[in-house]
Amino acid sequence: MEKFPMTPAGSAALEAELKNLKSVERPAVIEAIATARELGDLKENAEYHSAREKQGFIEGRIKELEGILSLIDVIDPAKLSGAVKFGAKVTLVDEDTDEEKTWQIVGEYEANIENGLLNIKSPIARALIGKDEGDSVEVRTPGGVRSYEVLSVKYA
């Protein structure tokens, strides 16, 4: 089976979500189902159906998280150095607009572009792998070809 790379922070976030679902959300929805059952006829009981739907979502997410966590390979970026690879915080400058961006290359289950966490399978991350400070890289994006210069590569 394929292992998924993940940073320690990403792994901790998934474990915290799983713990919350099991210890807080699951008991709360079980209580909501019990309360809704006491209201009578289940066929026309919107509270009951809503709670059962929420329970299905929670149980599905628990199974998904347990599956992901069983297949992760936690890689600590602090122990790495050199050219761009998994875990690197890369600062780039767009050679056309002079706009600077900083991304950390992470696994697909912790990627969040708004928070600067770039999926290792994304076109930009794949183009950056193996590059070093001062290198130029061309990236094919949905908006066309973009040129970036690598300003810094850090591992935290």
TrEMBL record:
The gene from which this protein is expressed is: greA
Q: Does the keyword Transcription apply?
A: yes
Task: Supply the name of the protein.
Answer: Transcription elongation factor GreA
The family database entries (SUPFAM superfamilies) matched by this protein are listed as: FKBP-like, GreA transcript cleavage protein, N-terminal domain
Q: Name one Pfam family in it.
A: GreA_GreB
| Species this chain originates from | Ruegeria haliotis
Statement: the UniProt record of this protein carries the keyword DNA-binding: yes
Show the PROSITE patterns listed in the entry. GREAB_1
Could you tell me which InterPro entries the record lists for this protein? GreA/GreB_C_sf, TF_GreA/GreB_CS, Tscrpt_elong_fac_GreA, Tscrpt_elong_fac_GreA/B, Tscrpt_elong_fac_GreA/B_C, Tscrpt_elong_fac_GreA/B_fam, Tscrpt_elong_fac_GreA/B_N, Tscrpt_elong_fac_GreA/B_N_sf
